[in-house]
Amino acid sequence: MDDDLTLLLVRSDSLPRLGIYNTNTDKKKYVHFSWAEGAERSLKIKVGRSVKEYSMESITESVSALISKGEAALSLKSLEWRGVQVLGDILHTTKAARSEADLSLIAENKRETLWYAYTPKRGKWYMRPCFVPTEAEAAILEQNQRDDVPKPGFLLEEGNLPFTMRNAPVAKEIINATPERWSEFLLPISKGILFGFSDWSLAGEHNFGEAFWKYLPNASFRSEESINSLISAGRPLMAKLIAYLRLWPILSRIQMESVPDSAKLAESQQLKRRERFEMTGAGDRRFKTTRFVSDAGDVSFGIIPETRLPGESDRVLRLSGEDWEICLETCSLGGDKDPQYTVNSVIGGMDVKDWYACIRRFC
User: Fold this and answer.
1) pLDDT at site 179
2) Which of 79, 106, 117, 201 could be joined to 207 by an S-S link, Cβ 3.0–4.6 Å?
3) Overall average pLDDT of the 302-308 stretch
4) SS3 helix, strand, coil % of the chain, rounded to 5?
């Protein structure tokens, strides 16, 4: 950076660390690269009797250059592309229902999927895509639609379900129709995880990133055992990535902001309260959530943490009534509508949208 500060890329046998080296005092501090995601912070170091401050803008530029140099030196390119393959496998992994009851009341452990199959002992098998399609994707689904299969599903041949839908003909057409949604974002995310950016593990840990370093170097990195282990290590991240992909066309139209008091804001804007419920978010944190409706039919959600983290505010989500109904229907996977799960999915999708924009500055 300058005569007083040097940034280092430090690696052992797992996630790299960002080394912050005060050359004036000869002191080093090692942090995960996720530290650099905090755009609101600055870096201060002691220089003699004074304190020198560096903006995150200058830190971001240097960290990005450091990662670019580190990639070549650490031979990470092959691991990054292996990560792309694994993420594609995981995100297109199917869940299945064996009965009509399973279709109408989706179990919680089967909700985190983009492809939900109906595989009864007797009767036709079909796959239901569980995401909001773009216009081009809707046309592809329509071409594969048959009158004897409920919309928006398509027939499956009976037998063993594919472990992942990624290479299925219909899925390939959809991925190729909107690469910016399905494929182009995987490389920056793979790179970010390998370098130790956030993966939403509990207590600030990086369980999925550590699992990446454990499994990707092995020849069997795409085996069923490896994929299952990675899914287990990355459940918080996978839930958010699936929510992002599921609601992708709508997320750009949703507004999310932090406010001191969501209830007072709703009152000042003369919004009508429609329902209130408790919601469990990432890390089993509980939130009190209220849905408000404007005279124009737009929907707002005030989300209040039951126990606040230091400096944490309320959150407010805003979207049109039409978009809320689309989210509610899509997140039901064809079963019963669940406002709590849908709001969690919207928040998860927006979290990834903001996080992805952040790590693109580095990766």
Assistant:
1) 96
2) 201
3) 90
4) 45, 20, 35
Question: What SS3 class is residue 136?
Answer: helix
Kind and range of the H or E element at 196?
Answer: none
d(CA 29, CA 263): 42
d(C-alpha 10, C-alpha 22), whole Å:
15
Pair 44, 52: CB distance under 8 Å: yes
Residue 159 backbone zone (phi > 0: left; psi -120 to 50: alpha; other: beta)? left
What's the mean pLDDT when you consider all of the chain?
Answer: 91
- Report how far residue 19's alpha carbon sits from residue 11's, in angstroms, rounded to the nearest whole number: 10
Q: Tell me: cis bond preceding 152? Omega within 30 of 0 counts.
A: yes
Asked if 201 contacts 236 with a C-beta cutoff of 8 angstroms, the reply is yes
Q: What is the pTM of this model?
A: 0.93
pLDDT at 310 over 90: no
HEC letters along 187-232: HHHHHHHHCCCCCCCHHHCCHHHHHHHHHCCCCCCCCHHHHHHHHH
| CA neighbor of 92 nearest in space, from 162, 191, 188, 189 | 162
For position 347, what pLDDT does the model report? 93
Angle between helices 207-215 and 77-91 (to 10 degrees): 110
H/E element, 279: strand 272-280
Distances (CA, A) of 252 to 241, 266, 349: 15, 22, 10
Query: Do residues 49 and 66 touch, judged by C-beta distance below 8 A?
Result: no
Give the 3-state secondary structure of residue 130: coil
Amino acid identity, position 336: D
| β-strand pairing of 50-54 with 43-47 | antiparallel
When mean pLDDT is compared across 61-70, 98-107, 124-133, 324-333, the lowest value belongs to 98-107
